[in-house]
Fold each of these.
Amino acid sequence: MRFDRSKALYERACKVIPGGISSNVRASWQPHPMFYERGEGSHVWDADGNEFIDYVLARGPLLLGHSPKRVLAAVHRQIDTGLMYAGQSELEVGVAEKMAAMVPCAEMVRFSNSGSEAIHGAVRLARAVTARTKIVRFEGHYHGWFDSHMWSYAPPVDAAGPREAPVPVPSTKGQPASDAANLIVLPWNDLDLLRKTMDAHAGNIAAVITEPMMCNMGALMPQRGYLQGMRELCTKYGAVLIFDEVITGFRLAPGGAQAYFGVTPDLATFAKGLAAGFPVSAIAGKRELMKYFGDLSVSHAGTYNAGAPCMAAALAALEELSADDGAVYRQLRMRGTRLMEGIRRAMPEAVVRGVPAVFHVSFGGDPNARDYRTYLPRDAEKYKRLAVALQDRGVRVVPEGIWFVSTAHTDDDVERTLAAVEDAAKVL
Ligand SMILES: Cc1ncc(COP(=O)(O)O)c(C=O)c1O
């Protein structure tokens, strides 16, 4: 495949856009950050006209595939009617009602635009309600790019120190070191350690925040009883349990990871699965907490919050996801399972982990990895080579190993993808 036009655009972009990209995450693309022109269903076309079966799906949001027709029709109607009002529209009530019907913890909902913003709001609310400041978070979990949350996502182990008591490590230059004082970082999936920590800090912990499945690092699953134990500890110590469902929300199940694992948090954040690619995020949670946004004692604001076309997109997306008793999830599960099994067959040395809608492929890793540090030792370079080989064969995957599957992927996509995997495996 040739990427001449993408390369020329990249060089042009680098002159006016730092790094030629608008999110640092996009820098890892090989042979250079690519440019795209069109997406439809499960396929995407780049600036050189190359066509790919897409498992990047914008890193999660395109749960219904590219440009889903029903969602676009709703957005087009709304664009012709009105964009934003600095006031409410019936649409946002509809989305909140729909979320309340689908998501166990969602007694009330507030909308923002990105996952990072929703997390910012949820953590502020937890601190306000508990009148405490410390947040327990886990190594390897990503909770957005804001200063106080972008800690210990991918820390060098040397800098992070002992496993049982990691030092909070900032993820970028420019983060105030003082934020570390408000954080307690722990390894994930270790309930004893969480219990000891909460015992030791009883009365000081405002919230425990977790990805309910470690999607950003290896698609690691919670061990049996772990999330339930976390729930019980938070209740015991009066800490707010926050599930960061930015990836898992509406992807694992209509009710998100909390429905999938049967554990209900106090607050949860949603974004990527919510509005089929439109910038909508949400803080959802128990009325007794959310009411403090309503009495204005806790600030949550945003000029672009709940813009009408975005709300039209979210409503149409949620209607599609919940139609026919969640029929789309059955298809998603079936095709995702065939992909996972086919990849295992084609590359028996690969570790394939996760759930059919979002899974992870790696080489040389510990199949029983349970946290950031046990996930780390793997052959990341070999996987990057696989990603490049797949790209050359018309299959687009994230270079870090995660695969997102959409309701738009077809049986034919699965077959062609597995043929490409088998072929790529030969040249690795
Ligand atoms: C689990 C999780 N939380 C939060 C975020 C941040 O969301 P956004 O990029 O929309 O700010 C992400 C983004 O990848 C995420 O994966």
Note: Residues 365 and 376 are 8 Å apart (CA to CA).
Amino acid sequence: MRMLAVGGTGWLGGHVVRSALDRGHEVATLSRGRSGPAPAGVRALHADRDAAADVARALAGVPVDGVVDTSGYSVAGARSTAEHLAGVGSYAYVSSISAYRDWPSRPVNGTDDPTFTEGSDEYGPMKAASERVLARALAGRLLVARAGLIIGPGDPTGRLAWWLQRMRRGGPVVVPADCLDQPVAFVDVRDLAGWLVECVETRAAGVVNATGDPGMTTYGHLLEVCRDAVGGDAQRPVTWAPRDDAALAAAGVEPWTHLPFWLPAREARAAWAVDTASARDRGLPSRPIEDTVRDLWAWLRERPVDAAPAGDRPRFGLPPAVEAALLA
Ligand SMILES: NC(=O)c1ccc[n+]([C@@H]2O[C@H](COP(=O)([O-])OP(=O)(O)OC[C@H]3O[C@@H](n4cnc5c(N)ncnc54)[C@H](OP(=O)(O)O)[C@@H]3O)[C@@H](O)[C@H]2O)c1
């Protein structure tokens, strides 16, 4: 199949390209050329997808059977590919759980839950509007994968990476006591990428909440898995310093960013409750969390400890002064 990876030079997109090549497809990437080169054996096309004329120029005369789109960051970008790729047999668009209007304050009960309807540049409304633009152009040939949290090797977000690097420093590690039993779920970047390619091959269409099962692990187990993965690389033995939500709030710990993936218990219960029956029905695999964390650590341990997150992504992690106050 002649497959176009829109965003194929990014993190998830890079895994999509590798998977498509492994499965014998002819692959082209479409990107602006800022995030790095396309791998060998791939036809690299360059355009800013926010500019329809640029996309038309880059795609002129390029035969495409199927598309995996991992670079949806604007409605204009969705419009340009919807316009120029409307004839393809299959198009998989990576959206986000953030497209749901009532999430994270309410659970996601299924793919029919309401998504944002008003236009806005904000991430969730932008994803929902992009889905609609693509659905109009590609009726019956569009798969919308509303991804949950993606983790795995190459992760540029610095979220799980912070936990692993913190374990490497060792000593007492502040952990959110009220959240340790909280079920949490993730999707391995390689599982998602390979599955997207298969969906395009089989011309799967519809909407899927593309993340792991709510019962796949808990926050506390994830932290144990991180400690085990770092293992002998830790500079000192790692011990837990559990602090409850009240103590974390009093110390000024910002949910989600200071302790990645932590939300106060009441908010966490709704936010992590995402129905994934659609993903399981469609065969989205879910490898053991131990494998994902081990492979992320293998990638991360070769990198500088203080490496800044890629692009303009926010920096995650507990500020040293806040940590010191919590441990005092
Ligand atoms: N990380 C998560 O947990 C998570 C959760 C839910 C959904 N998602 C979604 O997953 C997708 C993939 O995320 P990622 O972290 O793999 O993305 P990424 O690494 O930032 O890659 C983005 C790709 O899109 C290209 N791109 C960006 N803007 C472009 C433009 N205007 N024109 C043409 N190409 C453009 C980039 O290349 P150039 O910069 O060279 O153009 C790159 O190839 C995104 O759609 C994201 O919203 C992620």
Note: The CA atoms of residues 150 and 301 lie 19 Å apart.
Amino acid sequence: MKAFIVDRYGKKRALRLADMPTPELRDDEVLVEVHAAGVNLLDAKIRDGEFKLILPYRLPLILGHDVAGVVVKAGPRVRQFKPGDEVYARPDDFRIGTFAEFVPVKETSLALKPRNLTMEEAASIPLVGLTAWQALIAKANLKKGQRVFVQAGSGGVGTFAIQLARHLGATVATTTSTTNVALVKSLGADVVIDYRTQDFEDVLRDYDVVLNSQDGKTLEKSLRVLKRGGKLISISGPPDPEFGREIAASGFVQLVMRLLSSGVRRKAQGLGIGYSFLFMKANGGQLREITRLIEAGAIRPVIDRVFPFESTHEALAYVESGRAKGKVVVKIR
Ligand SMILES: NC(=O)c1ccc[n+]([C@@H]2O[C@H](COP(=O)([O-])OP(=O)(O)OC[C@H]3O[C@@H](n4cnc5c(N)ncnc54)[C@H](OP(=O)(O)O)[C@@H]3O)[C@@H](O)[C@H]2O)c1
């Protein structure tokens, strides 16, 4: 099958289109014929070698973390899916590879595609949708009437997180640049801060939750807009010791994580704020809940551009530009 692969780690190295064997199907997996694949910054970071410690992949590696497609084969232990089902997923770590014609996905990581979405729209959802879900619901336990600050509201995670937070009944503040103010308002943001002309620290006070996706300076400032008892959840680092334990990292890697996050953890503790790092995980159950919200019209996909399969490298470069409005998708079939 045709696939875009990384055969050597390297910053901005072009992915290579190669002929690869179709991965072997395990008993608890289905083989998905890929129709569309979402593109994520995680793909670029893995290609650059930034995740070698956390995700020690063997090369060559087929990249791609989001898929929408059709089940063509089911392993003997699969119960809920059959050939012909239209599905979508964020495959598990170490089983990624959606920039390809076929990808095996564990049954427990898969969900039926929302009926009201095209394949391209569905492929834009899993990774960012699950990230928002795991941050706002699983970690923050965000409730009606609470106030949440979602950074970068016009990005892949932001466009989903604003809608999810609004659905939960929270008041949502977000940052974006002037050209995207109308977009984030249309998604339900109540307070919009143009980060090119305003500082969010001057506007927001006593928030319950911050979803941090930016740099260390922004992380530090975020502490000051939270109230005592508030929660700072970061998806852009630094990783905390709990995450190290979750992924069963080596003693050395756990020590590195402890050191990297010691500053923010200490400051958060001093202010009575909970700090946690999130690295999202595949989860078919949560994805089914997301399907329900999309079919009910509570959340809609936001797609910036769809690239043809041959242009996967260009799609990744576009995501890396940091200017995407919502998601970037590659159409494979
Ligand atoms: N830990 C995890 O599980 C996890 C999961 C998903 C993503 N992430 C990470 O989270 C980050 C965001 O991911 P993403 O997919 O949402 O990114 P993205 O879609 O590529 O973000 C692009 C958007 O960011 C906005 N932006 C850029 N600089 C900004 C700033 N200083 N303030 C506010 N908005 C800004 C841009 O808007 P303008 O053009 O208006 O500037 C653009 O719309 C990345 O670092 C990604 O790797 C982590």
Note: The longest helix spans residues 251-271.
Amino acid sequence: MTMHGWAKQALAGARPTVFWSERADAPAAAPELSGDITAELVVVGAGLTGLWTAVQALEEHPGLSVVILEAERCGFGASSRNGGFCDGSLTHGLANGMSHWPDEIRDLVRMGRENLDGIEESLGRYRIDADFRRAPEVGVATQEWHLDSLKGALEHHLSVGDDVELLDSAMMQARVHSPSYLGGLIRYNDIALVDPARLCWGLRTAAESLGAQLFENSPATSVGSESSSLSVATPNGRVIAERVVNATNAYAGPVKQTRRYMIPVYDHVLMTEPLDQMQLTSVGWEEGEGIGDASNQFHYYRMTEDGRILWGGYDATYHFGSDLDPRHDQSEDTHGKLAQHFFETFPQLEGLRFTHRWGGPVATTTHFAPAWGTSQSGRLVWVGGYTGLGVGSSRFGARVALDLVFGRTTERTELKMVSKKPFPFPPEPVRWAGVQMTRKAIQRSDDHEGRRGLWLSLLDKFGVGFDS
Ligand SMILES: Cc1cc2nc3c(=O)[nH]c(=O)nc-3n(C[C@H](O)[C@H](O)[C@H](O)COP(=O)(O)OP(=O)(O)OC[C@H]3O[C@@H](n4cnc5c(N)ncnc54)[C@H](O)[C@@H]3O)c2cc1C
């Protein structure tokens, strides 16, 4: 059978559901909001940003009345659908941070390390069992030109004190066996892997144990002012609140301003069945490193606690009008390509099946890192736009949102990354045309040894772009 045939067969029985959240011990639904209540702080959205906002607010202000409104179920969005790479980077990677905020990159790296330590510490404090484990991350070269870009990345990492090492082909193959590997760059520090749904559920329990009230299936439809307070409306009730943090990320949510700065981009994932002992031996991978390849359109992959491989990335799809629809979670084209690329990387796993296939929206900004904004005289703060690296940085996003909503000037709020918003996306149809042009240029760049070409060079000059 051809590679294409194996891939098709392997995908045939995959369920169109998210592996992480399809669990028998998933928590019961919280109630819907019904009637009018009051709160000192309302958090809109119960993904990682919203949950960290509630937890950190209650740690800072014990006894504060905090209400969380979630349109669906806790963790419904990107937060329980992701690859579980929990990176210390706050800037969607070091290279992006260095190019946008060269003057503050050392502070951003330090704050990112503190943030990751804070996540680990909180998981211990609240006894959250989310299979959080520090593991190295490897950027693999699968084409000659990747080797040069990894050498450049090595210099960047060394300059901020990262513990990194270049791996030649033999060293790379000794770790993980794939005929496509030519070398790699391994980073030993500031990266962990986590089970994302268990992280969301654990944070939900932590927030509730500190006194937060969660309402699920309760979408916020508007935020208005009511005398000296804010009023957050849902279909069957309202919360009258002093302050609001909007954490709906890729979803439009009730705050229109966010739609200028963030657009939803779909990322797709496959999960295999557990590997048997022979299959595990055939790939090596004994240290359980997180892996990503060095193309612009990259794959990311990792092992799970029960010996499966999660395999995602490559395409990043944008739908006209920033459309969000559960239909976009499944893509014959992208899932098909992902399956084929999987067997090109690990041909020795012929016969292995995929059990789950899914997708979800990340929110990207033109500088690929989060953005914050305020309205209603600073009593309403929004945050989002982590692009594909929000598992760790969402806690920092929440921390800054709390600084802003409580009117504090801190080292964090003084950062240019925080105080200066990214360049806004243009309205449709220019938005769609710009994204498609950029996607094609990224594909061309990968096909031509990473050369940026005219369009990407122009975007680089203005410090803007499109990524996932
Ligand atoms: C397939 C995929 C793979 C990824 N892999 C990684 C990875 O390995 N590592 C990494 O760091 N990042 C990864 N990411 C990105 C990461 O998951 C996100 O950046 C992060 O989860 C964002 O969290 P959030 O809480 O801001 O947003 P979300 O998790 O999207 O949460 C927003 C919440 O708001 C709710 N909501 C929407 N509208 C309303 C409303 N009107 N009222 C109330 N609630 C509302 C939604 O239902 C949702 O629960 C990935 C994302 C995807 C989709």
Note: The longest helix spans residues 105-125.
